[in-house]
Amino acid sequence: MLYQLIGSVLFINIAFFISRPKAVTDIYVQLKATKGILSQLDFTGVGHHPWGIASIASLLRLCGIDDPLILLYYIQPFLVAISFCLLFNLLRTELSNKFSFFISLSSLSSLVFIRSMNEVTAEIISLTTILLFIVYVWNNIITKHIITMKIVSFMVVLSWIAILCRHANLFIIIGILIFFYLNNIFSKLKLLLLGSIMLLPGLIRALFFYTQKSHFEMIFSINMPVEVIDQLTKHFLNFTEIILPYSLHLNHLPWIKLFIVSGCLLILLLLIKYQKDSGETEYNKRILLANYFFTIGCSYYCILSFAAVYYNYDWGELYRVSGYGIIFMLSAFWIYTSSFVKWSKYVLVILILSSMTKVSYGLRYEILSNQHRFLFQDYRQSVKEIIEYINTEDVTEDVYVYTDKSGYGRNLHHMLSYYDLIHSLPFDINVYSNSIKQSSIILCSDLDLDQFNASIYRINKIPGIEGVYAIKK
After folding, report:
1. What are the residue boundaries of the structural domains of the chain, listed by start?
2. Which helix or strand (DSSP H or E) is residue 419 part of?
3. Of 321, 351, 334, 259, which is closest to residue 294 (Cα–Cα)?
4. pTM for the whole structure
5. What stretches in the chain show pLDDT beneath 70?
6. Could you read off the pLDDT of 400-427 as tens digits, one per residue?
7. Side by side, which strands form the sheet with 458-461?
């Protein structure tokens, strides 16, 4: 209980310290979709995003909570703590408290999760739901072999919740189904039926509602194996975070990253071979847990690589997607290592140093980055600064937001649109086009300023906000 309390308090404090009441663009889009959901049960506003967060936000608004974003902001640090406790309790079934604590600490200190804590994101919500599913399956189906209608039905419900919160959770659930198959937990017919039911929300979404353009011809292309290997290599290079903190400098040295990851893999393979040759069976259940994590991680990255080719999208370069699966490979690595190395106390020392270094690096990264982040403050304050500036300009017509070049412009537009939905703006907000009226104001980020000729437009920085400019002819 003490270890869980320490970890929970640590991550709650970190999350509140580095976060602000704002959201990534994906969350703004899903929160804005609540208007159509509540009025006509219309989910088209969600776009290609999952329906889960939009559904939760709609229920919150039905319950009288006017601004779901603010509630999610306050809940998110506690979801991080819950995720830590779920992972710790799962590891503690086969490992000591110390190993469980520091593996959990290292996992949630990966930069992908530290960065997800600084504003409302889908990563933290989806991590909590998928860990809840993974723990439930391990405790009931795999270890206790309780396969009753009640247990299986609840497992199906948890899988649906996880998929509805993040599409990529589908790949993790497929990994668990593969683990069932490899360990003969269900007969082939039952597994096929169960898998079809568990994956149903994801399959329906992909077949009928997913709007991202697919490239089916790429699956049969001659270059397909090369493209898949390229994606797998990019994911593989991120595995340095199993031991080391994520480093932007190290990204410029892929050969060093490849050497580090390959060295760790070689050591692990030698340890596994030694264990098999020696015939030791002391840690059979612990190895089963490591295999559980490893199968999930392999499934996530392999299917993600195929999906990247199918949708022609480079997810290997998108760290928040690629880094999401590191938690499974990291857990598997340290369980294997602690089981196969006789001098486990030295392994623990390395793990402690690794986890503490990752926490320190993550905090340092956030403290330095937060000073220059775009719109990094309470979103309500950002919008108020914009309203005050526009009032001084005496603008009564529409205000436009330039969104074509950088993601910052889209974030600004969706933030203003969400504020208009919840609090109402004194002007109409639109996406920039070349047919705007002469007197209208255009809002854009500092990254998009090169799209406007300073000799034609008057460009002013809006005070009180980082990186937002007002442009007028």
Report:
1. 213-341, 379-472
2. helix 407-422
3. 334
4. 0.91
5. 206-220, 272, 274-283, 394-397, 434-439
6. 999 877 789 999 999 999 999 999 888 8
7. 429-431, 399-401, 441-445, 468-472, 458-461
